[in-house]
Structures are given as structure tokens and as C-alpha cells.
Specification:
By secondary structure, the chain is α/β, with parallel strands linked by helices. It contains eight helices and ten strands. A seven-stranded mixed β-sheet has the order 4-10-9-8-7-5-6, sandwiched between helices. The protein has a three-stranded antiparallel β-sheet with strand order 1-2-3. Strand 5, helix 6 and strand 6 form a beta-alpha-beta unit. Helix 5 crosses helix 6.
Length: 279
């Protein structure tokens, strides 16, 4: 089923302004966040030499949960307490960008949940170990790429399972992350994605780009270079489908609870620009 197309958002700030003005749903001054919480994660899979950490701010609005990942310790003290019970309108104007993103994600998730009526196609991530589920999620994300074997994909926000999945499909990944470093296989990780776009066939980027302010420049650069941009999103899973057809070709949306939180089966959601996006 195709969903009715929505007005395209030229940038994140515009989308925040539209939500604040009540143009995308109910007046946000009438909606309050009931629960605010953070999930702190540390990962080290068997058979892999490295691990990673991150922290996710999540806000509960009625049945919806909106999320934004941050670097550990990046949120100011008292952020969770400030968000609990707060008006959505106030949080959409919060001085901390990840709070604004999480609030917008919760608001849009409540307005347009991930259902076929809003353009989402469910994909099951089977039960399994953390590594098995990471690999299954990576396969589901990579399915959204339209790149022939031998092609090159810029990966913004390094996830080793994604790089391994690209390799298994005959694709070359160009890893890029603000933290730099090296991949599991000793490959250097670039820190400036914009300088790499010209030499790839497609871009695969994390929703964390919303929370660190790099999403709009990345999206504009991909448009300018004519490169399809596919987003994999735990951060802003309800936000990024709003950019389908406006520089984003597809989104793998993964709302809370995320695949790494338990070993049972779960559902993520595919969106493609040619499927009409969200209404």
C-alpha cells in the first residue's frame, strides 16, 4: 500500500518548526512526556577484538517512544529529570540537540507510527545472540542499498556487522566516524564524510547524524553528488522517513526497544522513497 506523500522537510530545523507550530499533528503545548530515561550500552561480541559504548535518551509520549543516541556522558546532568513531565513544545526548543531530536521522534512516532498505512514495511529480526541479531539487522539494512557487486558504499557511523555484510555481498565499505580509529579489520576510519562522498556509489548513514548535527550537511552533499542516501535509524526512526524523496532514498527504522536489548524476535521497518514515505 502506498501512503499519501507528505510535505518534504528541507532541513531538521524546519521540521522542528513545523512540529512546534502544530502543522504535523496535535498542538505540542498540549502534549507532555510521561517518562524519560537513558539506556547505557557497552558491547564486546565473542570473536571480535574491539567493542563500543553509547548512550540513548528516550522519551515516552503516550504509546510512542522517541530516541536519540549520544556519546556516553554527553548529556548534561539532570537532563532526564528535566524532560519527564515536560511539554513537548518546550523540548522541541531545548538547547540540547539530542533532546530536541528525541522529542521530535516521540511526537512523530505518536502522529504516524511505523505501520503500512504510513509507508512502513515490517521486517523481522529473528531471535538469537547479540551478534546473530546484529548480523540479521545488518542484512536488513543492506537490503535497502541498490548497488551492484563491485560497488563502493560510504558508511557513516561505523558498525562492524554492516561492514562485514557489505563485504559478503561483494561491496567495498568506506568507513567514516567522528571518533576515527580503525575497524575490526584494521582499516582506518575517516572522520570527514563530506570529503568521501565523491568516490562512493551510495551512502549508508546512522541516525546518530541527527543528534550530532551532521545529518543535513551529509544529506545536502549526497544530493549534490547524486548519491543515494540510505539511513539506518535507532535515533530518529520516525523523523528520517520525513526526508524520503528529499535527499534520502530509504530508511531502516528501528524504534525502541532496539535489537540489542533482548534475544527475542523483533521488528524493524523499511521505507523507500518510491513507496510514498509517511503521511
Amino acid at each position: 500500500m502506498k501512503a499519501a506523500p507528505h510535505a518534504l522537510a528541507p532541513c531538521l530545523d524546519t521540521l522542528l518548526g513545523q512540529a512546534l507550530a502544530g502543522e504535523l499533528g496535535p498542538d505540542p503545548t498540549t502534549r507532555r512526556i510521561a517518562v524519560a530515561f537513558t539506556t547505557s550500552q557497552a558491547v564486546r561480541h565473542d570473536g571480535r577484538s574491539g567493542g563500543y559504548r553509547n548512550e540513548v535518551l528516550s522519551l515516552r509520549l503516550d504509546r510512542a517512544v522517541g530516541s536519540c543516541a549520544t556519546e556516553p556522558g554527553a548529556l548534561p546532568p539532570g537532563t532526564v529529570e528535566d524532560c519527564a513531565g515536560a511539554e513537548v513544545a518546550g523540548l522541541l526548543q531545548h538547547p540540547v540537540l539530542p533532546v530536541r531530536v528525541a522529542a521530535l521522534d516521540a511526537y512523530l512516532m505518536d502522529v504516524a507510527p511505523h505501520t503500512p498505512a504510513h509507508g512502513a514495511q515490517p521486517v523481522t529480526v529473528p531471535a538469537g545472540s547479540s551478534l546473530e541479531r546484529s548480523r540479521a539487522r545488518a542484512a536488513a539494512v543492506t537490503d535497502l542499498l541498490d548497488v551492484e557487486p563491485g560497488g563502493t558504499v560510504l558508511v557513516v557511523g561505523v558498525v562492524n556487522s554492516l561492514l562485514a555484510e557489505l563485504r559478503s555481498r561483494g561491496l567495498t565499505g568506506i568507513p567514516c566516524d567522528l571518533k576515527g580509529g580503525v575497524t575490526e579489520w584494521g582499516e582506518p576510519i575517516g572522520t570527514d564524510a563530506l570529503t568521501e562522498i565523491g568516490r562512493c556509489d551510495a551512502v549508508l548513514a546512522s541516525g546518530m547524524t541527527l543528534g550530532n548535527g551532521t545529518f543535513d550537511p551529509l544529506r545536502r552533499s549526497a544530493q549534490e553528488h547524486g548519491k543515494p542516501l540510505v539511513m539506518f535509524a535507532q535515533t530518529g526512526s520516525a523523523v528520517l522517513p520525513r526526508f524520503l524523496g528529499a535527499g534520502v532514498a530509504a530508511v531502516c527504522a528501528e524504534p525502541y526497544p532496539f535489537f540489542w536489548l533482548d534475544g527475542g524476535p523483533g521488528t524493524i521497518h523499511h521505507y523507500r522513497a518510491d513507496d510514498g514515505g509517511t503521511s
